Write the structure tokens for this entry.
Amino acid sequence: MAHDDRLFLITGATGKTGTGTVHQLLERGYRVRALVHREDKRSRRLAEAGAEIAVSDLHDLDGMTAAMRGVTSAYLCHPILPGLTEATTCFAQAATDAGVRSVVNMSQISARREAGSKAAQQHWMCERLLDRTNLLTAHLRPTYFAEWLTTWWEKRNGEGYLRLPFGDGRHAPIAAADQSRVIAALLLDPERHDRAIYTLHGPVEMNHHDIARAISTTLGIPVHYEPISVEEFASAMAERGLHAHLIQHLSNVAVDYQNGVFAGTNDNVEQISHHAPLTVEQFVTERTSDFDTSGPNFAPPRQAVPFGSGIHPRPRR
């Protein structure tokens, strides 16, 4: 249990890493303020767990200033949508004005000056912006989340499919729960990690054929990885109504993935959180129900055209 009265602000508190971080800190007896866009059943669950709820937007300087009052350390997490630079600027100014001591910043493994993804390049710039403040700052650059597998998963005729534009590229999927443990640990002990950049990986590097086999073994059903083109992937996302900014990002990082940007593994998760990260098999076991139906964003197979019909297949729009 906590032996001090520190207050932690968690932005993106109803998201994948934010929710876990809120619970990690509450379970250790710390005070937590959860920043949410609106009050709903997700925010009510956080309140029932013991969190204080603050309703604001990361782009609202006055709202962020109010949310920062009395805060010791804060976690910054922005969705892959336009406005990251503005949000980071508001966050940094509000934190500085309120006397916040430290921040943990969720970046991404593809963040770099020369990134083709606008979001990835903006993450790199926002890292540099935070480094220029007086805040103790740690940046996290995770590879693809294990949760990605549920989002792009298709269940069809009792079999599973991953239709993704990753070729034979490799990565070590990292679960959001493991990242939350790291975030909580960094918030609680910021001095040793000031200006650090940590890439976060799961324990085993795999290509998507390996991942499909691991899911198949765990679920006991056939699972297939079907490589598709970046163009087909982008077309499927547009058909789903995903934001153009997200499509531009995911299309470019798919190329990064093929070029090895997301590859590798390390022991950062275990060294920082003192907890071994989940394997793909363990993640699927914990989330079996998520694989019972198709995820929201899967890329459906193109419809076959009968030979001799005179109809030429077109990309899905």
Q: What stands out?
A: The CA atoms of residues 146 and 174 lie 5 Å apart. The two ends are 54 Å apart (CA to CA). Residues 304-317 have pLDDT under 50 and may be disordered. The first helix runs from residue 16 to 27.
